[in-house]
Design goal:
alpha/beta; 7-stranded parallel sheet; two-stranded parallel ribbon; 47% helix; binds NADP nicotinamide-adenine-dinucleotide phosphate
């Protein structure tokens, strides 16, 4: 594996799915990884696995929906490691939520995790990175930002907010030495994806998705979108007149196979 520009990285949502795969990919390339999520046993198991494979890893149990605590804990780990080079706000939740049954309670949790939690993660050491003139901030958003999606108002809203936040950071931080990237994956086989009853097209395995991200991340592009057929489909759908698109969105029944996650 090729060397990376990062010595240390913090990844939220590292206890499963894309976050765990990103941690494996980065640790395999010699990056010291901090694994953050709520489920401590899963984090501990992954830390053991990465260490046994010769990597450097530590667990940081946290709930990103507790934003103030998240900021404090990330700052503390930044102190301990002598500076985080890469911060990946990946923690997220999502499940089919028909608009007709959308509640404030469910929306609040989703935004607190996917948007506020991500902003807390990304800003925790942002001024320190600017001071060091070094660092890379990454948010795992979704291709859902490119078009309305079935039963996805709150999820898409949370991810569109995250993408806009990252884009603005990048525009403003241009010359600071701090890089910013928004990641927009299509469908990836993970525990979250199991909440959806449909078989979507072009599904990737989490390790494949992580490889694609890490390979491109080193060049610090504004966006990492994949796989291209899904990106193309979503952009096309998003560009259609609402009168054509919206009836299609209403026809798709995602159903909740495993309920919410
Ligand atoms: N799978 C897809 O098709 C797909 C497509 C586009 C984008 N994404 C995005 O990719 C990211 C990772 O999702 P995934 O598919 O890998 O799902 P996943 O396997 O369910 O992983 C979600 C991760 O987020 C963590 N998490 C959830 N709530 C948290 C909280 N309050 N505090 C801290 N950690 C929390 C979970 O850990 P704990 O439960 O241990 O806290 C878990 O590690 C999400 O942001 C998702 O929106 C996924």
């Amino acid at each position: 594996m090729s060397p990376t520009p990062w010595r240390t990285a913090l990844i939220t949502g590292a206890s499963s799915g894309i976050g765990a795969a990103l941690a494996r990919e980065l640790a395999g390339r010699g990056v010291e990884v901090v694994l953050a999520a709520r489920r401590e046993p899963s984090l501990a198991q992954l830390v053991d696995e990465l260490r046994e494979a010769g990597g450097a890893a530590r667990a940081l149990p946290l709930d990103v929906a507790r934003a103030d605590e998240t900021v404090a804990r990330i700052r503390a780990v930044d102190d301990e490691l002598g500076g985080l080079d890469l911060v990946v706000a990946n923690a997220g939740i999502g499940w089919p939520q028909p608009a007709s049954q959308l509640t404030w309670e469910a929306s609040r949790e989703l935004f607190a995790t996917n948007f506020t939690g991500a902003v807390a993660t990304l800003t925790a050491v942002l001024p320190r990175m600017v001071e060091r003139a070094r660092g890379h901030l990454v948010g795992v958003s979704s291709v859902a930002v490119y078009s309305p999606t079935p039963q996805g108002s709150a999820y898409r809203g949370s991810k569109a907010g995250l993408t806009a936040f990252l884009e603005n950071l990048r525009a403003e931080l241009g010359a600071s030495g701090v890089r910013v990237t928004a990641v927009h994956p299509g469908f990836v086989r993970t525990p979250m994806a199991e909440a959806f009853a449909i078989q979507p097209p072009f599904v990737l395995e989490a390790d494949d998705a992580a490889r694609r991200v890490v390979r491109r991340l080193a060049r610090a592009p504004a966006r990492i979108d994949f796989p291209w057929p899904v990106v193309f489909m979503m952009k096309l759908l998003g560009a259609l007149p609402a009168a054509l698109r919206d009836p299609m969105i209403r026809r798709v029944e995602l159903g909740a196979s495993g309920g919410r996650r």
